[in-house]
Design brief:
Oligomer: single chain
Number of strands: 2
Helix content: 25-40%
Strand content: under 5%
Structural class: mainly alpha
Strand order of the largest sheet: 1-2
Length: about 140
């Protein structure tokens, strides 16, 4: 079954010093995640993937179109909401979904401000996180 998410495939991306840039695990975006990115975030993704931004105006629609046309990402539909199993030991004691960060919208559906607030509340460092997807990955790695 194909995942309804976007997967970015690393294509010999180099940093400013010419060294290979390690992206770690493949990043995944849904179409709503791409839509929720700021112009700066879209440009950062494009630059990291080696997509030329020269001559591209500060129009988010055109930037996203160029990014999608580059062949470096695939945009697909939103995933279905995951089914969350409730542990009988924590059900009803207030430590269930709120403690795991599942209160309200799933992490990718939250704003960057909400994600940063959640990280602060749980003492999760966001050092080095420049993009929303990196913040989401860091929060998930912390068990949120």
């Amino acid at each position: 079954v194909a995942s309804p998410r976007v997967q970015i495939v690393q294509m010999d991306v180099l940093d400013s010093a010419g060294a290979p840039l390690s992206l770690g695990a493949a990043q995944r975006f849904t179409s709503s995640q791409l839509d929720s990115m700021s112009i700066g975030e879209v440009r950062a993704v494009m630059e990291r993937l080696g997509v030329d931004t020269a001559g591209c105006p500060d129009d988010k629609t055109e930037l996203l179109a160029r990014l999608c046309m580059s062949g470096r990402i695939v945009v697909s539909e939103e995933p279905l909401a995951p089914q969350v199993a409730v542990d009988a030991r924590t059900a009803g004691d207030g430590s269930g979904s709120a403690a795991t960060g599942d209160a309200g919208a799933p992490l990718p559906g939250r704003s960057v401000g909400e994600l940063r607030r959640l990280a602060r509340e749980h003492n999760v460092s966001l050092d080095g996180c420049l993009e929303k997807a990196e913040i989401v990955d860091r929060l998930r790695a912390a068990g949120l």
